[in-house]
Amino acid sequence: MSTARIEEGSAARAQPRRWILAALMCTMMLAAMDTTIVATAIPQIVGDLGGFAHFSWVFSIYLLAQTVTIPIYGKLADLVGRKPVLMVGTLLFLAGSAACAASWSMPSLIAFRGLQGVGAGSIMASVTTLAGDLYPVRQRGAIQGWLSSVWGVAAIAGPVIGGALADYASWHWIFLINLPIGLAALSLIGAFLHERFEPRQPRIDYAGAGLVLVAVGALIVGLLQGGQSWPWLSPTSAAVFSVAAIAAGLAVRVEGRAAEPVMPGWLWRDRLLGGCNLSMIGMGLVMMAPSTFLPTFSQSVQGLGAIGAGLVLACMSIGWPVASALSARAYMRIGFRDAALGGALLIVVALLAFYALPEPAPIWGTVITQVLLGAGFGLLSTPLLIGAQSVVGWERRGVVTGANMFSRYLGQSLGAAIVGAIFNATLSARLAAAPASYGAGLPRRIDAVIDALHAPGTDPAAQAWLRDAIDVATRHVFAAMALPALGILLALLFVPRHFPTLPDRRDEAAPARAGRRGAESARSAPVAREER
Q1: Distance of alpha carbon 415 from alpha carbon 248, whole angstroms
Q2: What is the mean pLDDT of residues 163-182?
Q3: pTM of this prediction?
Q4: Cis link prior to 231 (omega < 30° from 0)?
Q5: pLDDT tens-place string over residues 335-361
Q6: Which residues contact 33 (CB under 8 A, 6 or more apart)?
Q7: Three-state DSSP state, 234
Q8: What confidence category does residue 144 fall into, taking pLDDT thresholds of 50, 70 and 90?
Q9: Does residue 226 sit in helix, strand or coil?
Q10: Which among 280, 221, 273, 214 is positioned nearest to 248, based on CA atoms?
């Protein structure tokens, strides 16, 4: 078992944690702003490099590489320490950024975006784990609020900076801007973050890691490309999901025998951790409803511009960090599970409230539902993450955090496929039900709806029908996402109400402790069990 620790005692108290937190926020900013800043420059990138038919892979490969590597980095953080994993991952991200800026074709850009995603996986796993190492339980909610605020800033600043650089400089700068931010973060981490180790030879599970990569990678490729690059019911789709199923079965077998498994079985068998991970899958799935279709709804139905639509979506990123920062008061008073239940209920209310908005949907109503939805996400995710971190020791905190983050991104991949299918099915049905008099003004293909809506020659009555079709399709997506949100509630009901947190020497006033029996069981079991 690793004995590496963030330095404790007087040395730890002397550490300038504010500088370390600033470094963690900078590295998180790299991963958070990457997608939003790139999206606004896609027209310029495609105009320069070509390859319009493949540009969706610029985003898909990044998400794929990030998701499949998160659990591996989480395990490595337990084996070799957080600092080296974070620094290596950040260097990989910066190398990928520099290479993206030098891309000469769309295939080369896609390949280098994959390298960026590999680095982003380290950032997501290590930053969140370090937050659990550096701060006691009662302070972690506020720290997660600071880290979550990075996503809110990225949601607003990313499109603005990306658009400005693409219009007034060059799209190459949307990648080069990462270099000074990342180098500043690396300097702060190198100077102020210290770990001490007793050298040992880590036993890395290469076979298990490879099988996990293949299984998760094939699953995500199938979900992201199914229905787009190939039909869902096709030999290609069947082959991809078959590879995922076979690799997953082999991974379970290999991981069960490995001394240091990348994805230990107890992460899912344990009632507490398994429930938390399933809840994160559900949350990731629900997140894709506003992220994917709210900007289109705001522009096509409510008549907002691109910036206004982006600001409406950013309202979700305002409620999230505020709720995360305030969640400590909730989980210290009523417990991690019940605080998360409150967040799940808020998500259900926000989804149904959006569906019930009057027609035409007022902008203020959309804003309120998004703030509520973001608050629900913050109140759900932060207590479950901090609660899961606090029931295991340092030597398992990385793999537990990695599993939590991995579950959320896996849910997002599932959600991207599901919400797309719901939206397209509803839109197709509305187009098929259109009056015959609109025949000449309505498109025959779904991907031509936006062009027809804004084309000057389209019949106003047909435009109104298209706006109504997008309105109905978006509302159906939000209403459908209430089902997985209810699934989150169900999963949480199976989670023990009391999390047996291990004693934290940095938080003498923490009310929830494992006690002698709990501490002994924590040393002998994968996770501290609930005392009875």
Answers
A1: 20
A2: 85
A3: 0.82
A4: no
A5: 899 999 999 999 999 999 999 988 888
A6: 153, 154, 157, 158, 161
A7: coil
A8: confident
A9: strand
A10: 214
Q: Report the distance separating Cα 58 and Cα 228, nearest Å.
A: 15
Structure tokens at 464: 């109104």
The CA distance from 521 to 532, in Å, is 12
Which amino acid, 360? P
In whole angstroms, give the CA distance from residue 483 to residue 422: 13
Give me the pLDDT at residue 136, please: 83
Q: pLDDT tens, 367-377? A: 999 999 999 99
Residue 409 lies in a domain: no
Task: Please give the torsion angle defined by the CA atoms of residues 415, 156, 48 and 221, in that order, rounded to the nearest 10 degrees.
Answer: -10
Write out the two tokens for 424: 């397209």
Residue 303 lies in a domain: no
DSSP 8-state code for residue 445: S
Nearest to 121 by CA among 377, 406, 362: 406
**Cα 441 to chain center, whole Å?**
39
149-158, 314-323, 433-442: segment of lowest average pLDDT: 433-442
CA distances from 239 to 60, 247, 278, 415, 417 (A): 19, 12, 26, 21, 17
What the block records as the tokens of 106 is 């769309």
In which domain, by residue range, is 91 found? 1-204
Q: Where are the alpha helices (DSSP H) in 356-442?
A: 363-390, 394-432
Query: Into how many domains does the chain fold?
Result: 1
Burial 170-188 (b: 16+ CB within 10 A, else e): ebbbbbbbbeebbeebbeb
According to DSSP, the β-strands at 5-6 and 195-196 are antiparallel
Residue position matching structure tokens 């939805």: 373
**Coil vs helix vs strand at 486:** helix
Q: State both tokens at 239.
A: 């082959």
Distance in angstroms (rounded) separating the CA atoms of residues 286 and 272 = 21
In sequence order, what E strands does 101-206 have? 195-196
Question: Is 220 within 8 Å of 31 (Cβ atoms)?
Answer: no
Quick one: DSSP state of residue 195?
E
State which amino acid sits at residue 496. P
Element (H, E) at 309: helix 306-334
Phi then psi dihedrals of residue 529, to 5 deg: -85, 155
In a domain, 33, yes or no: yes
Model pLDDT, residue 506: 45
Is residue 532 classed as helix, strand or coil in its secondary structure?
coil
C-alpha–C-alpha distance, residues 307 and 159, integer Å: 8
Whether 486 is in a domain gets the answer: no
CATH code for the domain of 7? 1.20.1250.20
SS3 content of the chain, % helix, strand, coil (to 5): 80, 0, 20
By CB atoms closer than 10 A (0-12, 13-18, 19+), residue 64 is: buried
